[in-house]
Design a protein that fits this description.
single chain, alpha/beta, Rossmann fold, 13 helices, binds adenosine-5'-diphosphate, binds magnesium ion
C-alpha cells in the first residue's frame, strides 16, 4: 500500500497554514469554485514531482504577499513511513527533503512516489498538438525509469547547443564541421536511447489503453495509439547528416526525437477529427489509467490517483464505470474533487465505497 496520510501547507497559494489528514483510502474534496480543491491536489503532486502539474512556476505558487512556501507530507509506502518536505525559500531556491535528507537531484526523486493526475483541461492531450503527447509520454517514462529523465534533459541541452551553433554559423558564415560532428554524435547518442525507450514502451502501452477504453465505454471500439518518429525510418545519425544543409539554412535542428508524435486513431482516421466529445474524454481517461496501470506493474503497488473535477467530464454511465474501476477494482489511494459534496456522497454510496469527505470552506 502506498498513501499520503497527512499534508501540511504553508503559504501555498490560497493556503496560509493548513493541515489535512487522510485516514481513508478514498478521499473526496468538495467545496465551491476557487476554494482550493485543485491547489490541494497540486500540493500533493508537488511532493511527488517537485513541481506543479500545471506548469506554474514555483514563484506563482507562493501565496501572494508572502515569501516562500513549505509543503510537508507523511507517507506510507509498503510498510515504511516516509516524510517529504518541499520548500521554496524566500530567495526562490527550491529544496526537497526526503526523510530528513536533502535530495540533491530532483530528477532522482521522480517516480519514487508515483502519481497520476487527471485534470479537466487534460483533454488537450487529445485535441492539442504533438508537444502535449510528447510531454505525456516523457512524464510517464520519467516516473518509470529514473535514467530516462536524465537522458532527456541531456538531449534537450545538446539540442539547444546545436541550435545555437547553427545560428552562430549562419551569422558568421562559417561552419566548424569538427564541432558540429561532436554535437551530432552527442545528440545521436542521447536521442537514440530516448527513441528506443519510447518505442519499446509504446508497444506494451497500446493494449493497456484499449483495455481501459473498453472498460469506460463498454464498447468494442478500438482506438489506436501509434508511436511515430523519424527514427523509425532511418538512424538518427543519417537523419542529421542528410538534413545538415537544411538545418544550417533554417538555423535549427529540423528533425529528431523532439519531433516524435503519438498518433491517436479510430478506424484508421485521426481520432481528433472524428471523435465526439464523449469519445475524446473516454480516450483521455484510457490513456491516464493505462499510465496508472503501467506504473503500478513497474512499482509493484498502485500510484496515487488525483482526479480533479471528475464529474464534469463524462456521462453518468461512463462515470460510474470509471469510478467503479478507480475506487473498487483499484486498491490504491484516490482523491477526487467536486463542487457538490452530495454528488460525491451519492456516487460513493452507489458503488459502495467508504469515502472520507472533506468539505473545504
Ligand atoms: N499564489 C497565490 N496566492 C494566493 N492565492 C492564490 C494563489 N494562486 C491561486 N490562488 C487562489 O486559489 C484559488 C483557486 O484555487 P483552486 O484550487 O483552483 O480552486 P478550486 O479547484 O476549488 O476551484 C483562487 O481563489 C486563487 O485566487
Ligand atoms: Mg479546481
Amino acid at each position: 500500500m502506498f498513501q499520503i496520510n497527512h499534508i501540511s501547507l504553508t503559504q501555498f497559494r490560497n493556503y496560509s497554514q493548513q493541515a489535512f489528514s487522510f485516514p481513508k483510502r478514498v478521499v473526496g474534496l468538495c467545496g465551491s469554485n476557487g476554494i482550493g480543491k485543485t491547489n490541494l491536489l497540486d500540493a500533493i503532486y508537488y511532493l511527488c514531482f517537485t513541481r506543479s502539474y500545471f506548469s506554474r512556476t514555483d514563484a506563482g505558487s507562493v501565496q501572494i504577499g508572502s515569501q516562500g512556501f513549505r509543503l510537508e507530507g507523511d507517507w506510507h509506502q509498503e510498510g515504511l513511513e516516509h516524510k517529504t518536505v518541499c520548500i521554496v525559500r524566500e530567495t526562490g531556491k527550491k529544496e526537497l527533503w526526503v526523510d530528513q535528507e536533502i535530495c540533491p537531484k530532483f530528477s532522482a526523486h521522480i517516480g519514487r512516489f508515483p502519481v497520476v493526475f487527471i485534470a479537466p483541461d487534460d483533454v488537450i492531450l487529445i485535441t492539442g498538438g504533438a508537444e502535449e503527447r510528447r510531454r505525456f509520454m516523457d512524464t510517464l517514462l520519467s516516473q518509470l525509469y529514473p535514467e530516462y529523465l536524465k537522458i532527456l534533459i541531456r538531449y534537450n541541452k545538446i539540442l539547444q547547443e546545436r541550435n545555437s551553433f547553427l545560428k552562430r554559423a549562419a551569422e558568421s558564415n562559417q561552419v566548424d564541421t569538427g564541432l558540429l560532428e561532436i554535437l551530432d554524435h552527442q545528440l545521436t547518442e542521447a536521442g537514440t536511447i530516448i527513441f528506443s525507450e519510447r518505442k519499446k514502451f509504446m508497444e506494451s502501452f497500446l493494449p493497456e489503453v484499449q483495455h481501459f477504453y473498453a472498460v469506460i465505454t463498454s464498447s468494442a471500439e478500438k482506438p489506436v495509439v501509434a508511436y511515430s518518429s523519424p527514427l523509425l525510418e532511418r538512424s538518427f545519425q543519417d537523419i542529421l547528416l542528410q538534413n545538415r544543409t537544411r538545418d544550417l539554412a533554417m538555423q535549427r535542428t529540423s528533425s529528431g526525437i523532439h519531433r516524435d508524435e503519438l498518433e491517436l486513431k479510430l478506424n484508421d482516421e485521426s481520432f481528433r477529427n472524428i471523435a465526439s466529445q464523449g469519445q475524446r474524454k473516454s480516450l483521455l481517461f484510457a490513456l491516464k489509467l493505462a499510465e496508472f496501470n503501467v506504473l503500478k506493474k513497474a512499482k509493484g503497488f498502485p500510484p496515487l490517483l488525483l482526479l480533479d473535477d471528475i464529474f464534469e467530464k463524462l456521462d453518468e454511465t461512463r462515470m460510474q464505470n470509471l469510478l467503479h474501476w478507480v475506487c473498487r477494482e483499484n486498491t490504491g489511494q484516490v482523491f477526487l474533487t467536486d463542487t457538490h459534496c452530495d454528488r460525491i456522497k451519492e456516487v460513493m454510496q452507489k458503488i459502495e465505497v467508504d469515502c472520507q469527505l472533506i468539505e473545504l470552506s
